[in-house]
Amino acid sequence: MLQRLTGSGNPYQNPYNPYLRNNTSQRNTNPYTTSGRMTNYGSPTIPNTPGYQQTTVNSFGLPSAERKRKKIVKKFSDRYGLNLSDSDIAQMVKASYMSTAWSREICYMNQKYETVYSWFATSNPWLKAYMFAFPLQQISSDFAMQEQIVYTAFDQIFSDILSKPNITVPEAIWEINSKYYTQFDESTFMIAYRFMEQKGKRYPLNLGDVISGTSDIDELLSKYEHTQMPSH
Asked: Is residue 58 over pLDDT 50?
């Protein structure tokens, strides 16, 4: 039987990494009852700001008011237990006025899904797996920097736990969640693993005992790999 790991030697135990936290809250994955479609009703123009070029960001039909965008993210975070802090939400919303990528992510949160896994199947599943699995996140207004943050977070825990010889997927999930207080499940773990694999980072892992459903999530991710938002 696997022994519960302690926090000793934990790479997150420093001021820069806030991830090690005792999080006893349960995920609320109760499904939505209907499905929705994303819309695009216009593109607001960012006002001129010293040091920045004027540009147009696709709003994907989001409300222009900041408080309404915050409400969308807050409601979605509460429904699925993403544990996004008020400052995280504020940062994401602020970025959505400057970044089409962040505007798109809030638009996805403004849809209704039958399950949270339908949300994972939209663009940037690596970001969604990160926000779902980690009790505390680090949000950057720069989307390229956000991808680097997620890469680093996944790499730290995978390099630690998956360094054990012949470790299986269920064992890896159990040990990661026990040591880092994350909330990985089979799907989010495999999304993270495949993301790192696509970035050229492979970890020794016994895939012979992969739980049922992994092939399904791979097929789902492949289906939506080139999904793009509608443009008008």
From this structure: yes
Exposed, middle or buried, 34 (CB in 10 Å: 0-12/13-18/19+)?
Answer: exposed
Contact of 27 with 71, CB cutoff 8 Å: no
| Rounded-to-integer distance, Cα 117 and Cα 172, Å | 21
Give dist(CA 46, CA 96) in Å, integer: 11
Q: Is this structure's pTM higher than 0.85?
A: no
Residues 6+ apart with CB under 8 A from 159: 203
> What are the structure tokens assigned to 83, written together?
């544990």
Q: What angle do CA 9, 12, 14 make, to 5 degrees?
A: 95
pLDDT of residue 111: 92
What is the percentage of the chain residues whose pLDDT exceeds 70?
64
Q: Are 194 and 125 in contact (CB under 8 A)?
A: no
First to last CA, the chain: 56
